[in-house]
Design goal:
With 234 residues, the protein is α/β, with parallel strands linked by helices. The chain has helices at residues 17-28, 40-52, 67-81, 104-132, 153-174, 206-217, and strands spanning 8-12, 32-37, 56-61, 86-89, 136-140, 179-185, 188-189, 204-205, 227-230. The strands form two sheets. The chain has a seven-stranded parallel sheet, sandwiched between helices. A two-stranded parallel ribbon has the order 7-8. 44% of the residues are buried. It binds NADP nicotinamide-adenine-dinucleotide phosphate. NADP nicotinamide-adenine-dinucleotide phosphate (NAP) binds at residues 12-19, 37-39, 62-65, 90-94, 113, 117, 140, 142, 185, 187-188, 190-192, 206.
Length: 234
Amino acid sequence: MKTLKDLVVVVTGASSGIGLATARQFSQQGAKVALIARAPDKLETLAAAMRAAGGTVLPVPLDVTAEPDVAAAFAKVEAELGPVDILVNAAGVGFATDLSRCSLADFRRIFDTNVTGVFLCTRAVVGGMRARKSGHVINISSIAGKTANPNAPLYCASKAALNSYTSGLQQQAAADRVRISTVSPASTDTAYWDGRQVDRSKFLTAEEVATVVLFVAQQPDGVLIKDVDLAALR
Ligand SMILES: NC(=O)c1ccc[n+]([C@@H]2O[C@H](COP(=O)([O-])OP(=O)(O)OC[C@H]3O[C@@H](n4cnc5c(N)ncnc54)[C@H](OP(=O)(O)O)[C@@H]3O)[C@@H](O)[C@H]2O)c1
């Protein structure tokens, strides 16, 4: 397995759930980790705890949907930590939508975060990766991107769009030995489900999903794991 020590890793959605577990596991493996999410105080607290455990951690408050801010945030990461080796796009939102009543604002919120945000963050790093002939972008999609469900159809559509975007970029970037991967979890016990009447006891855990993200990142440079579907066995 490839070592992650001293690699520069950016994780979006790093203040909660899958992104947080992923950032922690990369840090435990010795990577230099930039934490991206919107809430600055939360990021500072998490970064302090990870530093206390020996990590090199940079909190970078950012709304991934804000184009000029994305460019500035990634410039800060590169200036302070160095060129980005791995980007994990975990920031995402989802909520139940009745398609006959859904507002355009809700539509935009889902697509802006789950698709535009990934596009902007990936664009900020993938050119440099291709020039260096090295790098890895791992997008957290969902099994809902492959099979739509009636509860959150806009979320499903956004993840299907993400999958198609990822597949196209994967084929473009392969020419420069840059890896683009998708990890598609089934239901995972995170704040995503807060306020919903669901039994989470048989869900994946964020730590389990993070373990797979690191497995994808640790493959030898000549090996690309394109897409992983995750289900829980409970
Ligand atoms: N939980 C599941 O069942 C499940 C299953 C399959 C796939 N997924 C996917 O896994 C990813 C992580 O979800 P999760 O379950 O870990 O959810 P979560 O615990 O709610 O975490 C979502 C993260 O995204 C960040 N975020 C949201 N909007 C953002 C924005 N505009 N800019 C920057 N950061 C933003 C949040 O931080 P701030 O609010 O502070 O910005 C938070 O850190 C998502 O892409 C989700 O679609 C989740």
